[in-house]
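Thread: Newbie trying to understand structure tokens

Hi all, I'm a second-year student working on a class project, and my supervisor (Dr. K.) asked me to get a predicted structure for one chain before our next meeting. I've only ever worked with sequences, so writing a 3D structure as a token string is new to me. If someone could post the tokens and maybe explain what I'm looking at, I'd be very grateful. Here's the chain:
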Amino acid sequence: MVMRNSTVMTEFILLGLTQSRDIQLLVFVLVLVFYLVILPGNFLIILTITSDPTLSAPLYFFLGNLAFLDASYSFIVAPRMLVDFFSEKKVISYRGCITQLFFLHFLGIGEMFLLVFMALDRYIAICRPLHYSTIMNPRVCYALLLALCLGGFAHSFIQVALILHLPFCGPNQLDSFFCDAPQIIKLACTDTFVVELLIVSNNGLLIVLCFLGLLASYAVILCHIRGHSSQGKNKAVSTCITHIIIVFLMFGPAIFIYTRPFRTFSADKVVSLFHTVIFPLLNPVIYTLRNQEVKASMRKLFNRYIF
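---
Reply by user tm_fold:
Sure, no problem. This is what the structure looks like when written as tokens:
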């Protein structure tokens, strides 16, 4: 990246979550405890689903991949943030910053697509049960997973491509604890209106369309199951409510961050903390706690290998 003064931008300085040492210590302890407790839970979900043949339905295939994506997503920001709490100068290289940005969007959009696929799976299972096994066969599931990877790569490639051509010739301090497009663009020494518009359109439009599509699909499902038997109805409603909770946890902060102009708000860092560290690890756990089949398989796994 060549700058106007013919030097090269080699690093960014992260200002971090807060300048208060007391608040930093409190956040460090909370995030570390949360990370050490919830992260193994995600790997336990993956292990349970892969080791139990009874959990071979597409729903559990997608849940296992959701846990994998969320665990991977948590590794992008949280470990470095925990280390930076005790660093006097929080420095990240330019390449490291761009790499973090790429994988942040690759996994983030991938997870959103996965939630869409999970909604599609529930719609077919509840509204078209006789055709479910034919439509949602293993080949289709793997094809959807491939589409998820390609879509996430294309989205992240666009994000990075829009930023790489920007000149940086001023301060290199990012007012954040990680690298993301809104913070990086503010440091460019050129008019970034068009780039901001393209990035907001690329992010915001995709996020809002997925969000509205998910809400509409679950609304259709809930309307469809009103006439079902009590037992089947309760199970379907429980699954849909769980998915809707995850949708709001995932899309709420994303809409706040990426569907507005890149201006600084007082809540930005707090929302980003929940969006990048807390909520991703919680999503599979929330689903598992409300899923009797997965909990029963976990108990069998513990009885077999622990007790």
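A couple of things are worth pointing out once you decode it. Confidence is low (pLDDT under 50) at residues 1-7. Residues 109 and 152 are 5 Å apart (CA to CA). Feel free to ask follow-ups in this thread.
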